[in-house]
Amino acid sequence: MTFKRAYLTAGFGLLLCLFTHPAARSAEEPVTAPQSVIAVQPLESVPAGEQPLSLYGCYWMWHPGDNATVAAPTIHVIFTGTIALPENDRIARGEFLLHADDLFTLMVNGQPAGQGGLNGLIPNPEKQPEPKEETAPPSLPLPVNADITSLLKPGINQVSIRVINTMPSTPAGLAGRWRVRMTSGAVITGEVDRNWKARRNISKITVSAEPLVAFGQAPWNRVPASIPGPGPFLGVWTHPSPDPEVQAWLVVDTACDNMSVTVNDSDAIPVGQNLFRADITSLARNGENRVRIEPCAPAHVHVELIKKAEDTVSPTGSETDAASAH
Q1: What are the CA-CA distances from residue 285 to residues 77, 292, 305 (Å)?
Q2: CB-hemisphere CA count at 13 Å for 287?
């Protein structure tokens, strides 16, 4: 079987993260900030500017003061920013990866460039209906990677993104990352951040956009951060000595139908399409570990080491019912 590229680089690399674990956590729950990060090496390097874009590392942004992680009003917010390119170089390719809650329309230099979004699929986290045991949460739409090559010019490019929160009292946000490759080989990148401006459609007042939460955190922890590429994804990391108090999770930034993970010589284990993670505690070994993900390749993969809560581990090491009381 032919091995294809493993996309493991700085922005899209395989990371080994150590997290504290204040309470027992299921695979569905959001990730907390890492205490330490151990980078690992790619199996094969990828030329600059050719890695698949990912929203991993971006922040969801919105207009300040709208309680946007819980219950933003039904409103349009217009985000504006610029893409500054060299005057003495030509544009080889430009792309803008975006996701929005609920819907976005991208304009570059006054021309339409793309649209998409979650279309009302993220509920108010304080008013979620009782889950039905027989049905799994639906998979959410992929981000949109807009080709903006023909709309760009040397110098300053004006970008406008209109985001509509279509459902009243639900979360609202925008996440975006852009990249432009020049014919000289230079690669210019950026993302929608606090340097961008935001304005409600009912107001003429423009303010700095507000960061809400990192991509991958609630209430958007089930939202894919990239578009799956052709697999398999091949990677390697160095694992510390096993610790019975620590769980190991392999985390991806997107998923596809029938995605599975093989660690070293293990049997393949499934990756939930709306969970983006798999428990590999029993598969990881001290020292070098290799991972194979198929049939598609995520843009970003990392391994999280999560310390178990003291009250959820019995003397024999098995899970107790204490966590269910929380």
Answers
A1: 48, 15, 13
A2: 1
The whole-angstrom separation of Cα 147 and Cα 326 is 46
Q: Can you tell me the distance from the alpha carbon of 290 to that of 302, in angstroms, rounded to the nearest whole number?
A: 12
Q: What is the pTM of this model?
A: 0.81
Rg (CA), the chain: 21
Helix (H) or strand (E) segment spanning residue 65: none
> Is it true that the peptide bond before 265 is cis, omega within 30 degrees of 0?
no
CB 261 within 8 A of CB 278: yes
For residues 249 and 246, give the distance between their C-alpha atoms in angstroms, rounded to a whole number.
Answer: 10
- Using DSSP bridges, classify how beta strands 287-294 and 260-263 pair: parallel, antiparallel or unpaired: antiparallel
Partners of 10 in the beta sheet? none
Please tell me the distance from the alpha carbon of residue 228 to that of residue 2, in angstroms, as a whole number: 18
Q: Is 260 exposed, middle or buried (0-12, 13-18, 19+ CB in 10 A)?
A: middle
Residue 302: beta bridge partners? 15, 251
CA distance 64 to 46: 38
Q: Which CATH architecture has domain 59-124+139-214?
A: Sandwich (2.60)
The pLDDT of residue 138 is 67
CB 144 within 8 A of CB 105: no
3-class state of residue 185 by DSSP: coil
> Nearest 5°: CA angle at 310, between 306 and 313?
85
pLDDT band at 28 (very low <50, low <70, confident <90, very high): very low
Tell me the C-alpha distance between 318 and 62, whole Å. 43
Cα three-residue angle 47-51-55, rounded to 5 degrees? 150
Spatial distance between the Cα atoms of 86 and 153, rounded to a whole number of angstroms: 9
CA angle 189, 195, 196 (to 5 degrees): 90
CATH tag, 14-51+226-325: 2.60.120
Q: State the DSSP code for 170.
A: B
Domain residue spans in the chain? 14-51+226-325, 59-124+139-214
Mean pLDDT of the chain: 81
